[in-house]
Structure formats: structure tokens, C-alpha cells
Amino acid sequence: MAVRKIPTQTQNFRQIKKVLLEKMKIVLMMALTADGKIAKHPNHLADWTSKEDKKLFSKISKEIGVVIMGEKTFKTLPKPLSERLNVVFTLEKNPNQIEGVRWVSGSPKKVIKELEKDGYRRALLAGGASLNSQFLKEKLISKLIITVEPIIFGSGLAMFEGDFNTPLKLKDLRKLNESTVALTYEILD
Fold this sequence. Notes:
alpha/beta
């Protein structure tokens, strides 16, 4: 007969403490053109990405359950993303309440702490460039998932604004279709 070991109060406390102290995991997920642009301009719809990219975004964002974005990015969507909490950074004092949308303001760290208090442990960051930069500057991003699409814009918006020198480690390279790849990077810094 197998004897089951019952955890002590100290072991239980350590496990609970570990979960509580665990830092929220932020995954930045973006589609890029072959020349590194996320859009032609701030109001550009993501209608240029492949169906495979859209399918991957939907799958991962639903698994994670929380999508963080700036208001300009949110306004490029036809409606809030269903089956996910849409956390939208805004400068408006009293934005219209929309089901499935949590309007937020302040620093990314403050917003992350609020999400952690609500029990969330992961979130997907979906842009735009300014918000991506704020999260990267505050070292809140742990992983990047980048879809590279076979198109060149020439001019447009980069994934980040400003000057960074953040080391990455390639964790996965996946071909989504004949010409589109998804790269997954871990942030080392």
C-alpha cells in the first residue's frame, strides 16, 4: 500500500507565497511587415495580416485571457475582442463603458498590479508602439511573439518608439503558411 505524504503547513505556506510573489507574465504579440512595420499610420487596420496570423493571435490571446492595448489600437478593432478581457489605456477621464472592456490609465506597473490583485497571472500586450515602449522600458515584457508577413510598407510605425538595446533569445520559429513565419523570443534583460 502506497503512503501519501501530506504537506506540512510550512510547505503549503511556501507554495502559496511562491504563487503570490510570482510576477505577472506579459507576452507582447505583434505582426510585422518584412521591413519591420506594425502599421502605415496610427489608424491603419490590421487587414494586411494573414488569416494564419489572425488565427494564432485569437488562439493565444484566448488562452491568456487578457489583452492589453492602447486606445488607438483598440479603435482599429471593429468591436472588443470576445472571450477576453480588453484592458485599454486611455487619456479620457470618463470613457463610455463597453462590455468586456476595462479602461485604465496611469503607469503600466500600476495597471499590472491591479490585474494581479484581480487574480490574473498573464496578459498579452497588443500595442501600439508607444505602449509597447512603456512596457519594455519598465522591463515588464517577458516574451515576444512576432509574426513576419511578406509585405513591405517602406514608411510606417515601428514596434517600439525610442532607443533600446534589449537582448533576446530565440525560443521558437514556426512557419504559419508559405510566406509567413512566427518567431518567439524570450527577453533576457
